[in-house]
Amino acid sequence: MKFNKLLSSFVSLSAVAFMLASCSTGQNSDDTVYLHVYNWQDYIYQFDPQNGYESPDMVEQFETFINTPENKQTYGLTKNVKVIYDTFDTPETMYNELKLNKTTFDIMCPSDYMIQKLALNLDGLESTRIQKVDFSRAPNYAKYVSPFLTDNLKDVLIDDNKPELGSLNDYAIGYMWGTLGLLYNPGAKTLVDKGYTEETIIEDFTKSDAWNILWENDDYASVASIKDSIRDTYSMGIMHVYNDEFKNLQEKYEAGKITKDVYKKDINAIFNRNDDETIKKVQEALIELKNRIYGFEVDTGKTDIVTGKVGVNLAWSGDAVYSMDQAEEMKQFFYYSLPSYGANIWFDGWCIPESCTGDNLSAAYAFLDFLSIPDNAAANMDYIGYTPFIAGDSVLSQVHEWYDSKDAENAVPYDLGYFFDGTLESEESDPIIMCEPEQTKRQLHAQYPEKNEIDHLCIMKDFGKANDSIVTMWENVKVNPLPIWVTVIVIASIVFMLGYLGSYQLIRKARIKRRKKLRAK
Amino acid sequence: MVKKILAKTYIFLILFLMYVPILVLIAYSFTNTQQIGQWNGIFTLELYAKLFKNQDIMVALGNTVILAIISAAVSTLLGTLGAIGAFYANKKTRAAIENVNQIPVVNAEIVIALSLTFVFVILGQYIFKAHIFSFWTLLIGHVVLCAPFVYLNVKPKLQQMDPSLYEAALDLGASPRSALKEVMVPQLLPGILSGFMLSISLSLDDFIVTAFTRGPGLLSGNESIQTLSTYIQGVIKKKAIPIELRALTTLIFIGVIVVAVLVTFYNGKQSRKIKKRKGREY
To answer: Spelled out in words, what is the top-level CATH class assigned to the domain A177-345+393-478?
Structure first.
């Protein structure tokens, strides 16, 4: 009896705790707004004194910043703001959590194609709908964002057939951006043993059609690892399959036969092709690639190349910077190649779900605006290694500090005017970096592509309706198709075993029945 | 003789191959190189100091351990009681329970995780009218994962036991509760303990169910609960695995060894005791 009482009280108690726990989050109390932020893991400045990051977390700095009377007034807040900071591992995880309506977030930071998918919201769900951004509520962003990037975002229409839906720029406050290129180690032991010199390797990888190199040269392919990611490999496949078309367009553009707008539109159209024929061609190319390369990797490429397991890696610019920094500590020097016939440029940006309103919306804009202050953007860049959307003096001086050459005589100019022009306030800021010649192929090149390369960068949109066929394509690439005779033998043996077991059971049952009958007699 | 030597080399070779990766990791936990494979010759305990100062890892570790202990305790309780109940139930009920118990064991983890998530989402939408993902949903997820294994561990002990012991205790005047406590549990203890240990290890390294059913709570406060597995999965997307984890792995490995040795020692003592008792009897 006593036990039962205990049990029932425990059950009711846990039910109460269950309710309490579910109510305590997401709901604002009288004097505090809870701002629920959803970001990639390790994608914001954090307090880490052991590695020299002495100031408090960016989130904490924001809470100190916003909870002063003046700043509250500026952003239209009356209550205090407290940030709940959650992290996801991939945009797909984020999308599924939204779709299931597990929790509600006030701002989240997926990649470009995912923002497009959310803005399009083909599923028509309430929980995955995002709202348009009001830039007047984030004045720092409007002031310091690089015009080069907003132009790029404006080029991506949410739906090509419905221009009234607007572009990516209407739905996102940019955070970080980068490119997808080939990271390579000119001192890789396997290559050196085969008679390659550092100069020939660098020369091969800086060719305009370097994307083809892994299909053409088995020595490079055998030391290359490729990201196990459907979008990144697809973009590489496209670059290989339509290499000639990219080449022709570029020649026309450089000869002045077509304007920049037409050129950009055309290369983006090729880059985003996903008709059945293209998918088939890409599949063939990727299967060929798979049989040549060292292997696919899941997020280990950036360390594998440092330990010497591979010599070439398909890398995001930020990962490339990480690997180059790591390698430098061991006196190894890696290079980053962005083949000039074209490459992928990508963005991670903040978007705001429809469900975020009132005080939460004000707090959300305050947070995004705080991140857009150039000092903070520079701190994030320093900590994460990726390149922020924000230009401005402090970011530029950070770049100067990292890359200005000590050896003035051999320094070469690296023009970042395309990125910083229009955001600089100080007279002394000079967007031309005088860097060491190697830097034009290394970290600086990964963080900011060269001026003459930026026209050739393409954005990969959401696959849209072709998504299913591309996923099937990727599955076909990943599995090793069995020869027909193996399939036949496997199926035959399974059928035989099932038939044997089944008939054995039947025989046994019949026997038992007969025995029972005999016994009854 | 030759056969014996060959057999021994074979065993040692396999053990060696199994433990080499862990030993390499342990060796590298005493140096501060960023990459495994690049021995820089510096012997230092820096990683251990860093480990305890890394708040993210400490929070994740704390969450993992608390969750493992609580979920193992709950699963052990449920699994043991379930096994006893099923053992004394009639044949049909027992067969039904046994079959239902097999489902989570045989099923892919992702199916369990997804179905639990759906249940919680529906509960939250129609009954609680709020988002109910929290420590409790995570706990339920882990108990669903672990309890069937406890059941499977206790069952053989029940079959070894004389089924009339419990009835004899009742006949001799014990109340059902004390009969359970004084007679049944000591008989089943080895099975219960191994079920508990298994639950802990299942819960410690679980990723899929955790990722699907977690919500805010425990040491993470208002933020989603991070366990070691979800933390590592998130961190490798934009950065590499933190080097401090080498130190943590070493510590966990040592902890496991200590527990394993203690258990073996205890079992040895127990079996010696039983032998003695048997010696007296016969």
So the answer is: alpha beta
